[in-house]
Amino acid sequence: MSDHSLSRRTFLGAAGSAVAAASAAPSDLLAAPYVRRSHPSHPVVIASSNGIRGVARAVELVLRGGDTLDAAVEGVKIQELDPSDTSVGYGGLPNEEGVVQLDASCMHGPSKRAGAVGALEGIKTPSEIARLVLKYTNHIMLVGKDAQRFAMSYGFQVEDLLTPQSRETWLRWRANRGPDDDWLPPEGNTPMGVRQTGTINMNVVAPNGDISSVTTTSGLAWKIPGRVGDSPIIGAGQYTDNDIGAAGSTGRGESNIMVCGGFLTVEHMRQGMHPKDAALATLRRVVAMTPPRLLDERGRPKFQLNFYAVNKKGEYGGAAITRSNFAVADERGARIEDTAVLYE
Ligand code: GLY
């Protein structure tokens, strides 16, 4: 049933309520009528925390009448083009050979279309190339050199995506790779900490109920060349169903792929779960699907994974394995909020 149609059952229910209202006390009759909203009255945009500038930009674009997918792409492009964000686009950390390989995907709820690119080199904004695949092809995913040639056919320039900072970080990682390799650690060497799997996911709901989502990343730092994570996988890195909502993820991609987490979170919302609970339920599935080598002695994952979700009404939430946060923008402005957590 569409949001606007009345079945016989709901019509009779409404008639019954009218009879009840007629016998209510005068003060009840003066109360504001309850309006069941099926869409938000203002755009709602949710993203990973590095999307704090992007969520504000996306809201602005939707308020000016922009499409939800275009708003999401413009939102994530702020990070793709920012050399100081080492998790995505220009300045993203490279693979083990020092080559930046980018993944991105997107979905446009109203047209029910999707696009993605994997292991794309030399193009700063893979989200735009994923949108080109969505708009101008009968396919969903292009990869590697051919994805690059596809981007070039639309006028995109191939550039060196390593910045002085990301090159330096990669060289430091290479110098500390192992005690028996041929790379000598530099003077005053400080070995690197945890491997990064940063990403940006953004999900946009417009007041007309249209929904879109985008995820873009440089993937796991120092990955084996050709490794593709969850971000370009439709149903893992992000997913939109225009009748229900959208969800996306950042963190350890392999663990998300194992549960098709973007799709699963939307399916949990379809069953009536609040977005936050939907994201938590997906994380519980992740834990159940985690091999023992990735669990600690208490059976908890040794990695981080985040899900962000918003439904068609504009209700939103985020959840992570351990403490984390996310960016949101709505009629109250742009802000950072804490996610729910599986483990304190
Ligand atoms: N979630 C980003 C990646 O694993 O590539």
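qc> Residues 49-341 form a domain with the Glutamine Phosphoribosylpyrophosphate, subunit 1, domain 1 fold (CATH 3.60.20.30).
qc> done
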